[in-house]
């Protein structure tokens, strides 16, 4: 899924800002927040299901390592403003996405 989304976004976005990874991580934070709010652990099966989807599927969909690689690449390219914006926006919108997902 991440491969499809990344390729689709990169086909139309050719700027230094790594938009594909940014959108994947923000949407993943939203879905994780929603999942953890929606699936309340009433029994061990609920906890297992929530963790399997959250850690397994959503964890595989999002990517911290790619975000760090892209940050280092921006640093190496001396794109310091873009790098700073990327890191700060990823953290801020990741938190907001998770909070919004949990509130639905």
List keywords for this structure.
single chain, 104 residues, mainly alpha, 5 helices, 83% helix, sodium
Count every helix, treating DSSP H or I runs of 4 or more residues as helices.
Answer: 5
Can you write the helix and strand succession as a string? HHHHH
- Strand percentage lies at under 5%
Q: Which sheet architecture does the biggest sheet show?
A: none
Radius of gyration computed on alpha carbons = 15 Å
Global morphology: elongated
SS content category? mainly alpha
Total E-strand runs: 0
- The helix fraction, in percent, is over 70%
End-to-end gap: 24 Å
Mean pLDDT: 94
| Low-pLDDT runs | none
Chart the SSEs and their pairings.
Blueprint: H1 2-12, H2 19-38, H3 44-61, H4 64-76, H5 80-103
Describe the fold and architecture.
Its main location: membrane. It is a multi-pass membrane protein. 83% of the residues lie in helices and 0% in strands. It has helices at 2-12, 19-38, 44-61, 64-76, 80-103. Helix 1 (2-12) runs antiparallel to helix 2, helix 2 (19-38) runs antiparallel to helix 3 (44-61) and helix 2 runs parallel beside helix 5 (80-103). The longest helix has 24 residues, at 80-103. The protein starts with a helix and ends with a helix. The mean pLDDT is 94.
Condensed summary:
The protein has helices at 2-12, 19-38, 44-61, 64-76, 80-103.
